Amino acid sequence: MAAATNTYEQYEAVVVGCGPGGAAAAARLADHGIETLVLERGTEAGSKNVSGGLLYAEDSAPYTLDDLFDGFREEAAERPVTDYYIHNVAGNSVKTYDLADLHEHDTDWCDAVLRREMDSWLEKRVHEKTSETGGGVLTNVRVNGLLEENGEIVGVTCDELDPIKADLIVAADGVNSELAREAGLMDWQEPDEWFQGVKAVVDMDPDAIDDRFDIGPDEGAAHLFSGDLFEDVRGGGFLYTNEESLSIGTVFHLDSLVEQEAEPHELLDALLTHPLLAGWFKNEYHEREYAAKLVPDSKKVAHREPYRDRLVLVGDAAGQMQAQGPIIKGMNHAVTAGALAADAFAVTRGNSDPDAAGRRYTKMLEDSGTMDKLRPRRYELSRTVGEHDTVTAAVERVLESPIGSLAVGNPIADRLLQRAYNSPFLVSMLPDTKTGYVSLPTLIAEEHGKTIHWESEIEPPTLEERIGDLTYDTDVGNPHIELRDESYAASGAAVSACPVSAEDFGGGCYRSETVKTNGSEETLVSLDTQPCVECGTCAIVADTEWEHPQGGKGVEYREG
Q1: Of 13, 33, 43, 120, which is least surrounded by CB within 10 A?
Q2: Which residues does residue 177 pair with via DSSP β-bridges, in sequence order?
């Protein structure tokens, strides 16, 4: 049982969040016999979580989820991903490359997952493990801040509980981690450091999945999409096969969404209604759930020293999401980080220096090779040149010229491109520019692609219907977001960038209207948090005061 200290409960370790990173940390802490309490904001783990849906187990990783939880793949995952492709799109012309070599590089296994199913399963196993050492899992608890004594972090504060002290605090509370920000370790300042992901989970019969994707019952497929179907927004789309559904979504650089004034739900619909997908849907479409989240760009924000005092960050809270072209890995790195943080504390247990576990954890991330995957040094070198406006403009002019068509359009170039897409070394150096996401894929499709003759008759749900199908427990009278500046200049970007808002749509979180006052006109922004999906987009693009809803309140995802 937890001992009382200065009227506060105290545990050896407190883990905030029971996603893959938090579950891994708690499991390893329990393996070391460490008294561990896990605090989860959702009604159950997974109810607040969204992921594109591929969980990797790398050969080089010190830990994988099935190392920590027996039976995980059989009981909590969807299909193993055996086929991996990227589709370069120009209108109805598509050029597809097989990415099997890239997908299988350093891969023990890779499974599609749905977060509600997976995380709720992990929560039960974590509770069993941590209960044996005097802890357990508490749900419906929002950790709202850090407890400090004499300027030193010694625990956490909560909406629903009295403060709790701990010798180790693991912040596994996701991309919008309030603990990381309160500690001064992460911020919400730069849109180009974040991606926004929007996703639909779509019904499909298992036999239809097998037939239409040419896979067996124990196989799965992953498809990526880039080119002109997303206009000029930097990013792309994905489709993953689950047991009896598809996860289909888009991921874009947040600064590019703002610059292009693109609306996320329309970009998703552009993918859903493309003729290529018509061949898989066969004009049958039923959307189970619409969801969204922010994604950290680890190349720019993965924290090199993710700790302060007794607080350590793991997973998205530490920016540990690897998104490098077709390489999209996050949950596996969260698992590694959580387990290493636990091991670091076990080694330094009893050390009076509050930084001891954090320093050891940082060194273990480096020694394991995890940090080099998240922040490859070759990208740091290539971005200084490749992401320079002058260089980007020059490359774009070449691609638009006859020289570009000649260089890309010959058979040798086609073979070289196939090899380049499958090179982890080259992919990790890919600059974050329009060239890699839009211009080059479009040119490849124009020069080498085949015309898709199917016609899509799919009509995706409207934004109003999507919001209406979500489950909410609204915290009436206690909004978790406040608009600090209602001027369009300060907050107008949220009207289009918010996944549940749009220009000319009055039912979303952010809305704009033109107001006449004393003979002059001004465009103002208003906010309604009821339909919020808690992605955090507005915290970056609008002048808002943002925090999570209280425990169990707000949106509840059924699929995730």
Answers
A1: 33
A2: none
